[in-house]
Amino acid sequence: QTLRGKKCLSLFFDNVDELAQVAVELEQGGAAKGIYFTPNPLNPEMLGSLRPANDDDVLERRWFLLDVDCVRPVGLRGESSTNEEREKAWEQFCVCREMLSTIGLEGIPADSGNGWHLNCPIRLNNDEESKTWHHEILKWLKAKTDATLADIDTKVYNASRIWKLYGTKAAKGKPTPERPHRWSMVIEDKHERMVAKHRPAQY
Known about the structure:
- The protein is about 25% helix and about 20% strand.
- It is α+β, with helices and mostly antiparallel strands.
- It has a five-stranded antiparallel sheet with strand order 7-4-6-5-11. The protein has a two-stranded antiparallel sheet with strand order 1-2. Strands 3-8 form a two-stranded antiparallel ribbon.
- A hairpin with a 4-residue loop joins strand 5 (about 110) and strand 6.
- The relative contact order is 0.20.
């Protein structure tokens, strides 16, 4: 959980209900600028630790993560996005989603509050080969989309990546009518979905 200012509070849970309760308390208390979690499973020995997780703490890769952010004017990159900026980013998100489907990656779309996420279930070892695979696909997507409309984050390939906790608010900068703080949320979740257990040969 990232708190206001530059301080970061890291907590570890083995109970989802407890995690949700703490997230609600932080959100309602106004102490948190952003609340995040690590989608990939961590070593149980991290329970009680006060340090952030690193890649060596991840047991395996369960998610291929895509973050499509809005392009904001210079000087406003630390602020929330406008509806128009979000619509442009959504167009590029749809392009990325279609491209990923051609290599067997289907995911759960989500609204990060300022941009768009795609969470694709996978089952891969946490190793250098999988790390490179994730990174190369992100770079492929970025090269094939319009950088003037959206920013494909190519840095979200690390196994211990923190991710927006859906149901919490994105609170970049000062909220305005044009650039409000928005709630993050899952847009769609299919009950049955394919889990990719092998890296595609080509992309």
